[in-house]
């Protein structure tokens, strides 16, 4: 059974940083692609980043490029999202997700989701 649990969200001032963690169980990063998505009130879920462990393939959404970094610690079975230079428009619930097979950015193709962690950036 695949289970994903996010942590690390909170309140931060604009320009600050946060690091989110996703503890994964019931899967191996050798067989799954991992991703981060976010959703603000009244808006559609937005792609943030995706990664395939072991082959160097990483993609970022336009809003994340140059500011966010996705990574994996395979020994700890954990995915991270380091967020720097945060802006008020980054305020959202951030979700960790997983899918089998080929790396991708489309929300509907990710099979498993965590409960989310709230990130709030004040101006």
What topology does this entry show?
Elements: E1 3-7, E2 10-13, E3 18-25, E4 32-39, E5 46-52, E6 57-60, E7 68-73, E8 78-83, E9 92-100, E10 112-113, E11 117-122
Parallel strand pairs: 2-11
Antiparallel strand pairs: 1-3, 3-8, 4-5, 4-9, 5-6, 7-8, 9-10, 9-11
Please count the helical segments: 0
Order of helices and strands: EEEEEEEEEEE
Helix content: under 10%
Structural class: mainly beta
Average predicted local confidence, pLDDT = 95
Number of E-state strands: 11
Characterize the main sheet. 7 strands, mixed
First-to-last CA distance: 41 Å
Indicate the overall shape.
globular
Q: Name the beta content range.
A: over 45%
Low-confidence stretches: none
Integer-rounded radius of gyration: 13 Å
How does this model look, in words?
The protein has strands at residues 3-7, 10-13, 18-25, 32-39, 46-52, 57-60, 68-73, 78-83, 92-100, 112-113, 117-122. A hairpin with a 4-residue loop joins strand 7 and strand 8 (78-83). The chain has 123 residues and is an all-beta fold. Strands 2, 4, 5, 6, 9, 10 and 11 form a seven-stranded mixed beta sheet that branches. It has a four-stranded antiparallel beta sheet with strand order 1-3-8-7, with no helix packed on it. The chain contains no helices and eleven strands. The mean pLDDT is 95. The chain is globular, with a radius of gyration of 13 Å.
